[in-house]
Amino acid sequence: MKDLFLYIKMIREYTDKTVNIPLTYVIFLLGIILFYCPEYNKLLNVSEWIPKKLQNIVLIPINYVYDNLAVILGALIVLFLVLFFVSYLPWWKVTPKERDFADNTTESWNIYSGIRRLLSIIVLLITYYWVYYFFLNTIFLTSHYTAFPANPLIIESGDLADYLFSLNLVFLFCYIVRSLFLLKSRTDINSIEHNKLRRYIILNSFEYREESEEEFEIVLLKSKYLAKTEYLIAEAQKSRKEALFDPKWGERKYIISKLKKSEIYYKVLNQSRDLSELIYHMDVLKDKKIVGKRM
After folding, report:
1. How does pLDDT run across 39-50, given as a tens digit for each residue?
2. How far is it, in rounded angstroms, from Cα 148 to Cα 114?
3. Secondary structure (3-state) at 143
């Protein structure tokens, strides 16, 4: 079973990154082919080599949900609206207080989190989960299979299933168009604005001064949000030497002024997924910029 989930994960990553279509809608496309070409479906004969008991275990709860989908969606929408209006009330006065635990976790109630989750459930019911409902009933040739529309572009019965079929067909079309024109490529970071440092964890840093007395900083950064952690070494100028003309003495003077945060940019010197490589580079830079100047 563990190997099966690992295999599914590999297929999902492949469809997302290579085909640029979510695995769910690749399954939907396959289901449509089997639905409109029943000879292929009969050739697969899935309903015969999978035990009926296993089919029922899978299909009964799914079909029950979608047989009563209108009622379930109606209840979820009503609950969503109730929470939406309640969010304008002093909700925090009636919810349990925030609790901290020894494992550095915090438990708290958030009505906006509940609203987002309800909305997510509604969207999943009419898109991703419906696709699996359609696919399973198609390959098992159930009575629900015959209820799907022969032409999803022409809604005749007005049933909710017709609308959902057409809706997901539109999504599939959009994903196919997107996959044809979408181009993904790795973007090398050349510089980082000071206000974008929040995307990184500062693992190490040091400051040094040039002979001009201008101040610089070098930082070792770890990415927070990337799927695969990356490390960067970046350098920024923190102060600047400026010339001022003194009319009293008729000469030019120099002052060191701190740069505003909006003026600070970190130039990326190195970027890698290997932390040990950047630690070594950081040590070399520190010896060069600080220790080397003292000698």
Report:
1. 887 777 777 777
2. 33
3. coil
